Amino acid sequence: MLERVRRWLPSHVLPYSLQGRLILVMAVGVLLTQLAGNVIWAAQRRAEARDEARTAAQHVAHSASSAVRFFLSLPPNYRPLIIQQFREMGGTRFLVNINRGPLPVRALAGQELADAALAQLRATLKEDLPNTPDLRIAFAWPERLPVGDDGVTLADLPETWTQHIMLARPAPVLLIQVELDPGHWLYLATLMPNPYFLESGNPLTRDRLLLQALSLAAVLLVTVGVVRWITRPLAALSEAATAFGRGENPPALPEAGSREFVTTARAFEDMRKRIQRYMEDRERLFVSISHDLRTPIMRLKLRSELLDEDELRNEFHDDLDELDMMVKGALQTVKDSDIHENATEVRLDALLGRMVRDAQLAGHAVTYTPSNLTVTAKPLALKRAIGNLLNNALHYGERVELAVREATGNIEIVVRDHGPGVPEQALAELAQPYVRLEHGRTRNGSGMGLGLSIARGIVHAHGGELLLANAADGGFQATIVLPGGVFSAA
């Protein structure tokens, strides 16, 4: 069902949340079910209405045939007297009159049930009155309906004469005009057994549509409640996963809801505990490695001092210094990207302003435009990430520009230098540990290629992303993109 809806609707119309998609699928399913049910029901109801109209028309035709035969059996001069007696008695089913010719009427047109009833009436009358020379049948509305040759309409007649035809709500009148003999036309007006039979031909009435709308609203209301009840635990799981990814310690998920969610919550809690134990074990491991590796390095340095040859002693010193630097770099890569501190509100103007002033005091050309934005982050970790990017920019660019901006719900911190830039093919692996390009070794011989890697680890720990690219008009640009859910304008 969801795939069919996806094909029918543009991608930007589909909601992104599971709750929204479930509600959409349920709404579309209910609408399609109601539409199919209404189509089938309407077709059956129209067929039943046609059968009922034909049956009623046949009954009326037999009654009209009896009336016609009765008046045919009377001498012409007796017919008006009989009609007058019928009127004095309060009328009959038929409003009867004798005219010199057929009266023109505005007949109903384009009515399926009316046409079916007329066809049945004509066939039955022809069968019952095979010798009738002329016969005219039609349905017409009672308003301004002519009754006699003298222009009298149905509304002009006394109420006692028309009580069986004139209803509170107008209904179509059946007119049967039969030529009894030359110059004498029998005028019969009556209603169908169901006066409002035409309305049964349209099953989708206003009341029916209102009922359908109310039932749809009730189903959707229940659907929204059920979907929210089902997806609420998933939202709690998502929030817990996001908080844990930022280094926070979320409360344990309640083991309530469906069996699948309870199983998922238990699996998530077990995973969180295993990761927490892993992080603690890793911390202890690297503390041990730091102690165990630096101690023999120091002993080797002391022993190298006992060597008599200066050249050999210097080579030993260089190798041990390089080994010591590699150990420090490896430990720094792990520890600096996992700073244990609480997140707090950080005013970016104050943080970046201090860093810019320090760089300017050291003689560097650095500019920054205040943004009046604050961010909820780990202050030391964020400062270290920005500091690494700024130090790289100061080493490789003639001047540096810092900027903070809001973009599509996120906050972007941009560090841009005006240096030679980076080859495009090297951008993909530039943030890997120990990766250094040729011009980097030339300009910064003491570097180890860990600054970008550490900055990326800190940004990822905040749920953000580090984007590296060459600026459009020259130089290199590093952009820290942090999710808007964590940051807010001051």
From TrEMBL:
<dbReference type="Pfam" id="PF00672">
    <property type="entry name" value="HAMP"/>
</dbReference>
<keyword id="KW-0812">Transmembrane</keyword>
<protein>
    <recommendedName>
        <fullName>histidine kinase</fullName>
        <ecNumber>2.7.13.3</ecNumber>
    </recommendedName>
</protein>
<dbReference type="InterPro" id="IPR003594">
    <property type="entry name" value="HATPase_dom"/>
</dbReference>
<dbReference type="InterPro" id="IPR005467">
    <property type="entry name" value="His_kinase_dom"/>
</dbReference>
<dbReference type="GO" id="GO:0005524">
    <property type="term" value="F:ATP binding"/>
</dbReference>
<keyword id="KW-0067">ATP-binding</keyword>
<feature type="transmembrane region" description="Helical">
    <location>
        <begin position="209"/>
        <end position="230"/>
    </location>
</feature>
<keyword id="KW-1003">Cell membrane</keyword>
<feature type="domain" description="Histidine kinase">
    <location>
        <begin position="288"/>
        <end position="486"/>
    </location>
</feature>
<keyword id="KW-0902">Two-component regulatory system</keyword>
<feature type="transmembrane region" description="Helical">
    <location>
        <begin position="20"/>
        <end position="41"/>
    </location>
</feature>
<keyword id="KW-0547">Nucleotide-binding</keyword>
<keyword id="KW-1133">Transmembrane helix</keyword>
<dbReference type="InterPro" id="IPR004358">
    <property type="entry name" value="Sig_transdc_His_kin-like_C"/>
</dbReference>
<keyword id="KW-0597">Phosphoprotein</keyword>
<keyword id="KW-0418">Kinase</keyword>
<dbReference type="Pfam" id="PF02518">
    <property type="entry name" value="HATPase_c"/>
</dbReference>
<dbReference type="InterPro" id="IPR003661">
    <property type="entry name" value="HisK_dim/P_dom"/>
</dbReference>
<keyword id="KW-0808">Transferase</keyword>
<keyword id="KW-0472">Membrane</keyword>
<dbReference type="InterPro" id="IPR003660">
    <property type="entry name" value="HAMP_dom"/>
</dbReference>
<dbReference type="InterPro" id="IPR036890">
    <property type="entry name" value="HATPase_C_sf"/>
</dbReference>
<dbReference type="InterPro" id="IPR036097">
    <property type="entry name" value="HisK_dim/P_sf"/>
</dbReference>
<keyword id="KW-0997">Cell inner membrane</keyword>
<dbReference type="InterPro" id="IPR050980">
    <property type="entry name" value="2C_sensor_his_kinase"/>
</dbReference>
<feature type="domain" description="HAMP">
    <location>
        <begin position="228"/>
        <end position="280"/>
    </location>
</feature>
